[in-house]
């Protein structure tokens, strides 16, 4: 059966090493480099949230199959710069790769790129600690799994994620890492449906608590997320 865990990306220790040391004593797949230590998928380095880790070889391959055929619900929370229009429902620019002058690769919208589809589920508008700053709290769902998909899609629309310097975001004293959190993960790997919702980790919770919602709907969205703290 699959096991669900958290990947915070902030401890500095490789996740594979942690899985092998803490979970691998009685689960051989979690000590097997050839099977990615049971880890079925990945999160970006600074992204927190839910990860699927197979606790058996059967669970590992069954969960992999669900990702391959896109039967996994993947929900995210992000905070981006500016006021993203609340009527936007889909971000669908095809994505390719581009090499920056500093030698770093990044995803980039281009007509010849691979199909990428991000659903915008809710948008809240907030003011930063300095009133002139505008931010959008965005709940999203991935329908494809391109590298840096959410980061690239929002940056393409002129709304890079907070603290995401690779895609044009600005770091601040109140948000020290990319504000992107995998809040929900749902799948069925053969033993029945699993639906996991994970609240914001402490650092992102504190960052969100610094902001002021600009309207009733934005206040309701922010309040719900603050109530779901890890």
Report the CATH topology name: Pseudouridine synthase
- Count of distinct structural domains: 1
Strand content: 25-35%
> By CATH's scheme, which homologous superfamily applies?
Pseudouridine synthase
The backbone outline, from C-alpha atoms, is globular
Question: What's the number of helices?
Answer: 5
Elements, N to C (H/E)? EHEHEEEEEEHEEHEH
* Major beta sheet summary: 9 strands, mixed
Family: Belongs to the pseudouridine synthase RluA family.
Organism: Pyrodinium bahamense
Protein name: Pseudouridine synthase RsuA/RluA-like domain-containing protein
GO biological process, one term: enzyme-directed rRNA pseudouridine synthesis
Structure description:
The strands form 2 sheets. Strands 1, 2, 3, 4, 7, 8, 9, 10 and 11 form a 9-stranded mixed sheet that branches. This protein has a two-stranded antiparallel ribbon with strand order 5-6. With 230 residues, the protein is α+β, with helices and mostly antiparallel strands. The protein has helices at residues 15-23, 57-68, 149-156, 202-209, 216-227, and strands at residues 2-6, 48-54, 73-81, 90-91, 95-99, 105-109, 118-127, 134-142, 180-188, 193-197, 212-213. It has a single domain, classed as 2-Layer Sandwich (Pseudouridine synthase), CATH 3.30.2350.
Question: What is the topology?
Answer:
Blueprint: E1 2-6, H1 15-23, E2 48-54, H2 57-68, E3 73-81, E4 90-91, E5 95-99, E6 105-109, E7 118-127, E8 134-142, H3 149-156, E9 180-188, E10 193-197, H4 202-209, E11 212-213, H5 216-227
Parallel strand pairs: 2-9
Antiparallel strand pairs: 1-2, 3-8, 3-9, 4-7, 5-6, 7-8, 7-11, 9-10
């Amino acid at each position: 059966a699959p096991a669900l865990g958290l990947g915070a990306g902030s401890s500095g220790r490789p996740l594979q090493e942690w899985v092998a040391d803490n979970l691998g004593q009685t689960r051989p797949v979690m000590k097997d480099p050839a099977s990615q230590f049971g880890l079925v998928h990945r999160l970006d380095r600074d992204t927190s949230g839910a990860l699927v880790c197979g606790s058996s070889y059967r669970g590992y391959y069954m969960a992999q199959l669900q990702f391959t055929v896109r039967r996994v619900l993947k929900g995210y929370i992000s905070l981006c710069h500016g006021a993203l229009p609340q009527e936007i429902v889909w971000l669908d620019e095809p994505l390719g790769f581009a090499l920056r002058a500093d030698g770093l690769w990044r995803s980039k919208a281009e007509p010849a790129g691979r199909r990428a589809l991000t659903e915008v589920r809710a948008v809240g508008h907030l003011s930063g600690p300095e009133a002139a700053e505008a931010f959008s709290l965005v709940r999203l769902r991935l329908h494809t799994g391109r590298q840096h998909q959410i980061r690239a899609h929002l940056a393409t629309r002129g709304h890079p994620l907070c603290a995401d310097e690779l895609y044009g975001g600005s770091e601040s004293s109140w948000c020290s890492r990319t504000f992107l959190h995998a809040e929900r993960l749902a799948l069925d790997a053969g033993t029945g449906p699993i639906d996991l919702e994970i609240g914001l980790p402490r650092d992102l919770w504190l960052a969100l608590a610094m902001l002021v919602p600009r309207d009733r709907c934005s206040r309701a969205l922010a309040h719900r997320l603050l109530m779901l703290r890890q």
